[in-house]
Design brief:
Length: 271
């Protein structure tokens, strides 16, 4: 924990003043930190007021992948505007890049909310179908990447999204070992295997995990959704070849340690 705070402190010293200057130049007021302990990998988050609207600001100081958020928004806003947080401004040039969204007062979707409001599953399936039709693979489908408020469900965080069709989407350098470790765990272990992503597979994995907490009527409903989702699993995947000698050596050592400790390291496919 101390190491994390030290890193955050160094990040703050290096970037915080230029960030504040950029946001002030855009006439964003009442700027404050947001989810400070979730700042990592050069990403940080702020709240503020822009054009008399409360806003959420996502900053990228390292990977410069916010173009993916912007591309996904532009490709999908026509058919799923209600399921996206409104993007008000983007600055994608320079060392410090950022997006300004209207602030959506909400809760992250979780197992309890989903089990007690399974109609949100219809929304999620519709969202994933729309993304698939647009040729987009989100790559990080998990419950906390959906926000819910006043019966509205919105999907967020397309930073690591990609596409087999739209070549404008940006990928990290897969020859960099650190990036390979990052991508290995992108998807929270809900994806088919390391470096393979299938949004419907991830949703299926989520439902299988929460089945154990479902009561009888809920379990019957979940089984119906699971069968529906399985029809779409495998239809659209995004996969990459990633790795360096250092990465594969380190991964082999980690797997060996997990085997010695009796920890299951394997990814399991459905098909």
């Amino acid at each position: 924990m101390l190491k994390k705070y030290l890193k955050l402190g160094l990040f703050t010293i290096r970037h915080i003043i230029p960030i504040y200057v950029k946001l002030k130049d855009l006439n964003i007021k009442n700027i404050s930190f947001f989810n400070f302990l979730n700042w990592r990998n050069g990403y940080c988050y702020f709240r503020g007021v822009y054009n008399k609207k409360e806003v959420f600001i996502k900053i990228d100081t390292k990977f410069h992948l916010l173009i993916n958020d912007k591309l996904a928004y532009d490709l999908c806003k026509g058919v799923m505007q209600d399921n996206l947080v409104d993007l008000l401004y983007s600055s994608l040039d320079g060392r410090i890049q950022f997006l300004v969204y209207e602030f959506f007062h909400s809760n992250e979707l979780d197992e309890d909310i989903l089990l007690n409001n399974m109609r949100y599953l219809d929304d999620i399936i519709r969202i994933l179908n729309n993304l698939s039709d647009a040729g987009i693979i989100h790559r990080d489908i998990k419950l906390d990447n959906f926000l819910v408020s006043n019966n509205k469900l919105k999907i967020i965080d397309f930073t690591f999204a990609n596409s087999n069709i739209h070549k404008e989407f940006k990928e990290v350098d897969v020859k960099n070992s650190y990036n390979c470790f990052l991508l290995e765990f992108l998807g929270a272990g809900l994806n088919p295997s390391p470096f393979v992503w299938d949004d419907f597979y991830s949703l299926h994995s989520i439902l299988k995990k929460i089945e154990k907490d479902a009561k009888d009527p809920q379990e019957v409903k979940l089984n119906t959704y699971v069968k529906e989702i399985m029809k779409s699993v495998g239809k659209m995947e995004y996969r990459i070849t990633c790795g360096t000698g250092y990465y594969f050596l380190s991964r082999k050592i980690k797997i060996k340690i997990k085997e010695m400790l009796g920890i299951d390291h394997r990814y399991r496919r459905l098909y």
